[in-house]
Amino acid sequence: MLSDIEIARKAKLKKITEIAKDINIKEDYVHQCGNYIAKISHHYLRELKDKKDGKLILVTAINPTPAGEGKTTTSIGLSMAINKLGKKSIVTLREPSLGPVMGVKGGAAGGGYSQVLPMEDINLHFTGDIHAVTTAHNLVSAVIDAHIKYGNDLDIDETRVFWKRAMDMNDRALRQIVIALGGHANGNPREDGFIITAASEIMAVLCLAEDIPDLKRRLQNIVVARTRKGKPVTIGDLKIEGALAAVLKNAIDPNLVQTIENTPAFIHGGPFANIAHGTNSLIATKMALKLTDYVVTESGFGADLGAEKFLDFVSPTAGFKPDVIVLVATVRALKYNGGTKDFEQENMEALRNGIENLRVHIENLRKFGIPVVVALNRFSTDTDKELEFVIKFVENLGVKIALNEAFAKGSEGALDLAKKVLEESEKESELKPIYNWHDPLEVKIMKLAKEIYRASHVDYEMAARNKIKFFKKYGYDHLPVIVAKTQYSISDDPKKLGAPSNYNFTIRDFELSAGAGFIVALAGEIMRMPGLPKVSNAVNLDVDADGNITGLF
Amino acid sequence: MLSDIEIARKAKLKKITEIAKDINIKEDYVHQCGNYIAKISHHYLRELKDKKDGKLILVTAINPTPAGEGKTTTSIGLSMAINKLGKKSIVTLREPSLGPVMGVKGGAAGGGYSQVLPMEDINLHFTGDIHAVTTAHNLVSAVIDAHIKYGNDLDIDETRVFWKRAMDMNDRALRQIVIALGGHANGNPREDGFIITAASEIMAVLCLAEDIPDLKRRLQNIVVARTRKGKPVTIGDLKIEGALAAVLKNAIDPNLVQTIENTPAFIHGGPFANIAHGTNSLIATKMALKLTDYVVTESGFGADLGAEKFLDFVSPTAGFKPDVIVLVATVRALKYNGGTKDFEQENMEALRNGIENLRVHIENLRKFGIPVVVALNRFSTDTDKELEFVIKFVENLGVKIALNEAFAKGSEGALDLAKKVLEESEKESELKPIYNWHDPLEVKIMKLAKEIYRASHVDYEMAARNKIKFFKKYGYDHLPVIVAKTQYSISDDPKKLGAPSNYNFTIRDFELSAGAGFIVALAGEIMRMPGLPKVSNAVNLDVDADGNITGLF
């Protein structure tokens, strides 16, 4: 099979103005970025206000292998297949960070015959949204340190500035640093660090904001530090929410591109699925819902992370709900959950053990009251016996399942999946969140721990207990909870594969994302600044005299 | 008078596709970024290769007051006035950094009735070129620290990594930092710092490159560190010039916008005029020369910095030369050079003393063999007697001078200047550089010190003497010299106003920009990372619900 970029280069793209016209976006709202990318003004949503929403299809996955199971290619392939069936569909996705492109991970614009294009641009800079977030983020830091240097009127405690600096780069050397050395002219030395931009609360805020006033309100509420007396210091106290919103003025508009089969795709915003909610911007999804019959969107990591957040936090915030959930599974991830890392050999025992992971995710998703369809992504190493076993298992649970070969075959490989998804989408459903936002913080966490993570008990470490007091004192405990934990297990321990239960779930600490509107419960170490490997992908990346890029995958 | 942004908002812009069509740029090469900005593929230069160049007009200035004398408004106004006279003209300018927009300086897209538009976009992100340079720059740093962590095969001396990190922000707390703290996983601790992106050698390289292969060659040659044995370590040694060029793939294409009077403007690249050559990209100027009759371009700081570099380094590198030089002077800058800071009162004595600064710059520029026209930028506090005095003084030197009111009146205010510039541009001239690139390094510096800075002697501090040995050992001493010194005096001392002479010029140290192709001679402290003031402009900046920005000036 050809490489992603070879396949991409063979595709015949339509002009983006045509794509926009096909879905009836008025020309005035189309801000062209070259021939194949456009920003669509978010103001267009005001005009579409009274239009009926299309159906929403959420794509999620079981706990994956470290290589990933093809959730994005499934989302793209499914949307292309729905179009192939004569219905209208738009796929909405997160935009990839540039940092990881230089690391091991490579690009993130789908793959094989299920890609969004132009993949080189999407993976490198795209329309500059992430750079805008970086700039806004670092402006906050520069203002904090200037404030401290010039008298510190807000009485900011230099040892409790939670707001780190940000960069869209895999740069481990910036994780932990000491800044403002060199004496008086350079300010007051303190400990600091950089996070990757996707982990910035500004990224989360941008993806949740309804419009510019809502963006400013959320930015204003972000807590960056505490005073020496312990009081929260917000961006509103620094009076720069207007400047930040000005810096983000274009970044708030969704980006329109196309799939390899010329169907429309919105790619907008990229928050993490552990310390944030992990899905593309609400504005993009809302706009897509107004413009088409079926919107396929995706949430980050497994169903215990991204989908749970989508259902308990994103949907209530946005005022929409999915009509169907597609749960991506693979034979190899099930075998991995069953205890093997050898995916080349048929291994029914590992599969039988690992399939418990799929069962748990199906059970979990059913609790939310939304119909589920399993997409079984086919790999060349899967045997018929293995595939047959999974299909039977799922059908016995009363759930529809379809083989998916969108990676290798594009829409043709996802037609069966598309048909089953369309059928299920006709069912009436009502979203039943796992917890109520008004539950006490510990109750919200206990409900998640029991219902989703299958723990019997929640332990709080000292730091976490202190934060709970802080949240209660300053009125933040009504916020919903975003659990940050490993993606490799439904539990808080990446080594507990399959379907762990009856264990203690440990909350190490909390963080406050008051602008985004949630409390992050930290269950495990969360990496917020990746590093480059010994030989990074930067060594492979190249561009020729005509501007053709190679080494992107 | 209205504020810049109010004036900007009243302007009626043409679609950028129309502007491009007016100057005969083929549609295929126009990459639209919204309705009013376009990137023009640099590949178009290949097609234009055999077309005759237009005339080149270089705008420079005397030593300024800290508030600046309006060089950019003069360039814009002059180009608009040439168009008004029925000739075709394009202005080419540097793109503003975003960092200073948040500081005291504000934007940098001209002002009053001589602006380039859309000024909000030009001042904030624009087409992302500077973000691309930041990304490329920091990729080099991340790769250096990953290389050191994973065995350091190149034997990089951690105490001699010259390559700092970069950010487009005024952030003094990042000037001097310690990185990679926190133990093994985060790498090897060392001292580091951030410079503002405009000061990155990658910015200089981008602005000098002819095309992508030349860009890669220059990137490859950049020296980032020395080995423990003292040998230079280059980006070529790290094998990432291809990745950097891929990151800069779009940034190499010039940006086309328009002036407030709908005449075309290229705004592309923004290197400093102290540690770099201080003018917009060669690609933009070369393309403009092929597309129009008169190109107005500008060099940074005063004629002793930007213009000298343009004539001794940029022109020989590019293979073009100016046909006329416009020297911007103001009554208040002359009075400032004459020892007063009170510009409100008529002060003939200060003016008589200060005008020596103008005399020196005229003499200096005449040495290069190119005709000079003085633009006397009028301010409301200037008295007729003062203006008359300056005009007589210049005319007595046999040099043409015109009053310029482009800031307040647009092209109408620069018509007389335009006429005189067009007349002078008809004269045959030959560029005579001050030094020969093949002169020994100390000879090059001595020639500059005597002919331009009017010093009698050059002192070298220890660090500088050691670097000369290093350059000779590794074959870098044939490179031309870029002197980094104060912009407020023709000397190396900002307090020596007017026309200092017979003093010792001191070279403190050297830096190597082997990719850009020059040696930087440091004569004084050069600030490479500005800071925010106590109350930054970020507090004024805002955007309303409809996306209109306020607080930009």
UniProtKB/TrEMBL annotation, chains A, B:
It is an enzyme of class 6 (ligase). It comes from the Bacteria. Pfam families: FTHFS. Gene3D superfamilies: Domain 2, N(10)-formyltetrahydrofolate synthetase, Formyltetrahydrofolate synthetase, domain 3, P-loop containing nucleotide triphosphate hydrolases. Keywords: ATP-binding, Ligase, Nucleotide-binding, One-carbon metabolism. InterPro entries: Formate_THF_ligase (IPR000559), Formate_THF_ligase_CS (IPR020628), P-loop_NTPase (IPR027417). Pathway: One-carbon metabolism; tetrahydrofolate interconversion. Its EC number is 6.3.4.3. The keyword rRNA-binding does not apply. GO terms for molecular function: ATP binding; formate-tetrahydrofolate ligase activity. One of its GO terms (biological process) is tetrahydrofolate interconversion. ATP binds at residues 65-72. It catalyses: (6S)-5,6,7,8-tetrahydrofolate + formate + ATP = (6R)-10-formyltetrahydrofolate + ADP + phosphate. HAMAP family: FTHFS. Belongs to the formate--tetrahydrofolate ligase family. This is Formate--tetrahydrofolate ligase. It comes from Marinitoga piezophila (strain DSM 14283 / JCM 11233 / KA3). The lineage of its organism: Bacteria, Thermotogati, Thermotogota, Thermotogae, Petrotogales.
